[in-house]
Write a structure and sequence with these properties.
By secondary structure, this protein is α/β, with parallel strands linked by helices. 39% of the residues lie in helices and 17% in strands. The strands form two sheets. It has a five-stranded mixed beta sheet with strand order 1-7-6-2-5, sandwiched between helices. A two-stranded parallel ribbon has the order 3-4. Helix 2 packs across helix 3 and helix 5 crosses helix 6.
Length: 215
């Protein structure tokens, strides 16, 4: 590359950059073939990525391909048992993070440590916790972001516009009801692939009596 310093030229032709370029190309190609449009931009720093509506197995692929177009590596949680041979390497290679359900510091503590070790971690969490209709979202995404002191990014799928991407980014304020109202406004009108499976956007913790009963 004429006129480009050798150090810069080497970085532009490094294996990591080439792999990122191939993934970005494949992400755009697959989305185009499926007639989906990637929108928005990835968060500027490590974040908890809320993925909704989560109503189909295809949601994961659409979000992965969209992340590739942004040169973004999404990580996801999995049971520790899934990371053992023979497929453990595949789980890690695709962004999996093993979770020990019996660990003394719990899920929130483990993920806080993960963000400390990897500040640019992009942790994707389907807050509904299931592809079936649920009356409440699970609050893990909020508690992890709060404990790790990282932003929450709202990622989405909208079948009505055939758009998939990243939207609102905000810091959890500690006022769960107010923060969840922002989440509700954002997801209002966004249609999942099997939208009849998309339940209310709310946490048990928003209603003190119900949160206490759940605990």
């Amino acid at each position: 590359m004429e006129g480009v310093p050798r150090s810069v030229e080497a970085s532009l032709t490094s294996p990591a950059v080439r792999v990122a370029g191939v993934k970005a190309f494949l992400g755009r190609l697959f989305l185009k073939l499926w007639r989906w449009t990637p929108v928005g931009t990835k968060p500027a720093r490590g974040s908890v990525i809320v993925c909704a509506p989560h109503t189909s197995n295809l949601d994961y692929l659409l979000m992965i391909f969209t992340a590739w177009t942004q040169n973004m590596n999404l990580s996801f949680l999995g049971k520790a048992q899934l990371f053992k041979p023979p497929l453990g390497w595949l789980m890690r290679a695709t962004g999996g993070i093993p979770v020990d359900r019996n660990a003394a510091n719990g899920l929130v503590g483990q993920m806080t440590e993960a963000f400390t070790a990897t500040p640019d971690l992009m942790l994707a969490i389907p807050a509904e916790g299931t592809r079936s209709k649920a009356e409440y979202w699970k609050s893990g995404f909020y508690r992890i972001a709060q404990s790790a002191e990282v932003p929450i990014c709202l990622a989405f799928i909208d079948k009505s516009k055939r758009e998939v991407g990243f939207g609102l980014v905000f810091e959890p304020s500690g006022d769960i009801a107010a923060d969840m109202e922002r989440v509700r406004v954002f997801y209002d009108g966004k249609i999942g692939l099997k939208h009849h499976n998309f339940g209310p956007v709310r946490l048990r913790e928003e209603t003190p009596d119900e949160g206490a009963a759940a605990g």
